[in-house]
Amino acid sequence: MTNVKERIAESVISETESTQNIMRNVRVLIVEDHLMVRMGLSLILEKIGDISLIGESESGTDGVNKARTLLPDVVLMDIGLPEIDGIEATKMIKETNPEIKVLMFTSRDSEDDVLDAFEAGANGYIMKGANAEQIERAIKSVSEGTGWLDPQIARIVLSRVQKNSHSAVSSAPTGEIKYNEGKNIYGLTSTEMDILALLVEGLSNPQIAERRVITKSTAKAHVHSILQKLCVASRSQAVSKVLTEGLV
């Protein structure tokens, strides 16, 4: 699976999108077969001024059709849906409208479900136990082109990475993930190797700066250099390359 985990990414960093501080309105479609869950999500979204609920679906098939008709910015997608499941629905949406972001919203946390969802094109993965603030941040994160990975899911993914490549991974005394120097074919410096490992952990630029005891601008410069050397356009693509090529 060459594209597995492509959109697994970092913690959200809020950004203004105009000099007039006008927030872009994010149009959301909910695809969820349980009425009470849909109602709960609707109440949450109604309280967020820059997010609009434009539609709801009870099945995967109807969700695909409404996504193609309404063209939402973000689809909140359950996995366990009637007719076709959320993973297949995500794949179908992405095949015709790749610009639509899909945020998996589910109670399933198995490795197979997580990896299959990202393989299908999901941009983020959040558990149904998330609170309103986390849901808002996740929606805005994927709408801005960054990914979102529920901390609970992140631990599962990182655990699998460590298990699958344990023979090639060196660990710091704290147990942090370290870059596999034996596969450094991209000319990364030792500092960039360490920072790349932090990207895999899901750290944002401010968190990287704090962990490495450097300024935020320095952390940003290192990340930019890493993206250039890996020949990728985003942090999520960098993480994808790291995970799929076994660089950590």
Outline of this structure?
This protein is α/β, with parallel strands linked by helices and 248 residues long. The chain has ten helices and six strands. The protein has helices at residues 35-46, 60-70, 86-96, 111-120, 132-143, 151-164, 190-201, 205-212, 216-230, 235-244; strands at residues 26-31, 51-57, 74-77, 101-106, 124-127, 148-149.
Which secondary structure elements does this structure contain, and how are they paired or packed?
Blueprint: E1 26-31, H1 35-46, E2 51-57, H2 60-70, E3 74-77, H3 86-96, E4 101-106, H4 111-120, E5 124-127, H5 132-143, E6 148-149, H6 151-164, H7 190-201, H8 205-212, H9 216-230, H10 235-244
Parallel strand pairs: 1-2, 1-3, 3-4, 4-5, 5-6
List keywords for this structure.
2 domains, 46% helix, Arc Repressor Mutant, subunit A, Rossmann fold, 10 helices
Describe the protein's architecture and organization.
Helix 1 (35-46) links the parallel strand 1 (26-31) and strand 2 (51-57). The chain has a six-stranded parallel sheet with strand order 2-1-3-4-5-6, sandwiched between helices. With 248 residues, the protein is of the alpha/beta class. The chain has helices at 35-46, 60-70, 86-96, 111-120, 132-143, 151-164, 190-201, 205-212, 216-230, 235-244; strands at residues 26-31, 51-57, 74-77, 101-106, 124-127, 148-149. Helix 3 (86-96) runs parallel beside helix 4 (111-120). The two termini are 17 Å apart.
